[in-house]
Amino acid sequence: MIATIAVIAVLPVRHGQLPSGADECVREAGGRALVVGTGAADAGAALTGATHLLLAESAAPFARLVPALADALRHEPVIVLPTAPDGRDLAPALAHALGRPLLPGALTVRADGATCTRWGGRVTEDQTVIGPFVATLQSSGGAAPPFEAGASPTTQTVVLGADEAAPAPESLEVLPPDVTSMDLTEAPRIVGGGAGLDGADRFAQLADVAAALGAAMGGTRVITDKGWIAHERQIGTTGVVVRPALYLAFGVSGAVQHTSGLGDPEHVVSVNLDPHCPMMQLADLALVADANATLDELARRLGVRA
Asked: Across residues 49-56, what is the average pLDDT?
């Protein structure tokens, strides 16, 4: 929804890269955003639907910027951050500094609270608060809907002083993302497994294959319900909403709860014995084959355990 209340999106960025869900936060905030971090100007220029931009270029750790951010945002009644990792880290610290409640996992915000996901996305709950609050916005996957905005947003530079006394981790080295443990919302390639795979051991194999392909591993709700993988690896509207460029599906039938959480991948490959299941209909490449045998052969070719 397009916000009619005073909402501002706070977007922590690194090296000019917007976090997942940034455009949706800006849309929820009616086009108002504060972009903070390294490469803030480049990130701000890439935003969709921004009308009023505050740009705060800073190489300081986000933890040390919290006091200055709190001062700058003290008069904003509703502050929204994305549920990407930096947003999830910064939101509770900012809420604490401002003395406000935090509403995590919001689907929409309003003047007196938000509608939030709970119990791993299995239920939604209306949260009502009195006074200002901070929320993290759950991405819906895919591109944000079009937003009516002018071509050139109003832009203002903000200088934030870092609190050198605030505790912050020391950065020794920046490593490439570890696909075996990275947040699924940030993964550009995902290998997913469904009920067509025949046991828990298959998902250990699937994780090895995914790592060899430089991809993250995920699964469907039926798999997490069986306890074969952790819930944070569940893809779908009741799990994690993702937006990979490539999705490989092994034995995934394609229930709407799963496919609705996939975003809009550029390429989809599906392996299934049922040529008519929804996942095969969505695929750019549909292989009518046993997912277990195909996974064994792919593991062999990649040199991982079969």
From this structure: 92
